[in-house]
TrEMBL record:
It comes from the Bacteria. InterPro entries: Ribosomal_bL12_C/ClpS-like. It comes from Streptomyces griseorubens. This is Ribosomal protein L7/L12 C-terminal domain-containing protein.
Length: 91
């Protein structure tokens, strides 16, 4: 009985480790593709359109950085760091 529990626990731990490894690899691939896409867009002189950009700029002008970052994240799905960098670039 103890051996069966140990075996099942080992299988679960190895499965979780395998899934984590695949997710990390996928995250790296997505980041690499995003960097390439950013480089292509920069080369072509294109900018990514930000939904509700006018509202975000108004918040930045009013000194409401936190609300601007929050709105940017809500509209674009960006992470905190990316949103902060984008809002800082707008100011």
């Amino acid at each position: 009985m103890d051996i069966a529990i140990l075996f099942c626990s080992t299988v679960v731990v190895l499965g979780v480790a395998s899934i984590q490894s695949q997710l990390t690899r996928s995250d790296r691939r997505v980041a690499r593709v995003e960097r390439k896409l950013d480089a292509v867009m920069g080369h072509l002189g294109l900018e990514e359109e930000v939904p509700r950009k006018d509202e975000i700029l108004a918040l930045v002008r009013d000194g409401k950085q936190v609300q601007a970052i929050k709105l940017y994240r809500e509209t674009t799905g960006a992470g905190l760091r990316e949103a902060k960098q984008a809002v800082d670039a707008m100011s």
